[in-house]
Amino acid sequence: MKNPLPRTLVHYVVIITVCLTALLLSPLSLNAQTGHRQKSLVTNFPTNVSETLDPTNANVTIQLIVLTPVQFDSWLTSVLPTPVSPTVRDEAFPRATWLAQLQIVDDFETCNRLQQQTLPLLRLFHREHAVRFFIYRDNYPNVQTVAFSYIGISTGLLDLLERDTTGAQLNGLVAHELAREIVKERFIKAWKHEDFQTIRQLELFHDLIAVIALHRLQLPSQQYAFILKQMSAHNTMRNDYAADDLERKRHPSLDDRQLLINRVALAYAS
Asked: DSSP string covering 84-140, please?
């Protein structure tokens, strides 16, 4: 039996949609106010993100879209926590991958290529020395972070990324993973209490940061939307119904994610 969506979730989706629509349908008003808003955003945006930033507040997240590249870099620096370790934590990797039951694939050449393709993004998030890639065997396309320092790319996802000529698909997915650091404590709390509504809202926030980061690096955000669609299509073909149900609980719908990406892209194009 399918559980009906909580009314509060519907309200959040409506609020975000209305706010983004208002933003995008008023480009002249937005452009006229951009200078004033940008001047005050850097000082007004919270620096202690774990206590003050509410990523589920549409009014707060919309303001991120009008930040200039320099201002966005400054904001990102202010809200990202210091890496657990300035360099990759090799000692934690074997146990973490064992606990996650991941079958590691030894492919140093591909891992180095992934590292180079995402280097500008890693620098943007100040993680160029604190993140390393690995590949694990799984036909389902997925990306995940383990041991705080390693980003895992499944063999199924690697196959989909073979045609990613711009690198935007890979960078968008990695940016989503790195954005988790911004509200990590809140995400962990929601996960612990199985607060799937908050988790879905935070996932949309991670998407927002990923799309802004792509625009910051002048990479096409529609490629990020494309890889999400491909991953979703492969997910629906699985026979693991328990896993599918869990995915639906933890992630916003593809339509919601695509809507967010499209509206942010339109905001930058206007």
From this structure: SSSS--GGGHHHHHHHTT--EE--HHHHHHHHHHTHHHHHHTT-TTT-EEEEE--SS
Range of the domain at 144: 7-269
- Condensed to tens digits (0 to 9), the pLDDT of residues 122-145 reads 999 999 999 999 999 999 999 999
For residues 77 and 126, is the Cβ–Cβ distance under 8 A? yes
- Residue pair 186/201 in contact (Cβ under 8 Å)? The answer is no
24 occurs within a structural domain? yes
Are residues 217 and 121 in contact, defined by beta-carbon separation less than 8 angstroms? yes
1 located within any domain: no
Residue 2 forms part of a structural domain: no
**Displacement of CA 254 from its chain's centroid (Å):** 14
pLDDT digits (tens, 9 = 90+) for 89-115: 788 899 999 988 999 999 999 999 999
| Total tally of structural domains belonging to the chain | 1
Side chain identity, residue 2: K
Q: What confidence category does residue 56 fall into, taking pLDDT thresholds of 50, 70 and 90?
A: confident
H or E segment at 145?
Answer: strand 143-146
Distance in angstroms (rounded) separating the CA atoms of residues 47 and 43: 9
For residues 15 and 170, what is the distance between their CA atoms, to the nearest angstrom? 30
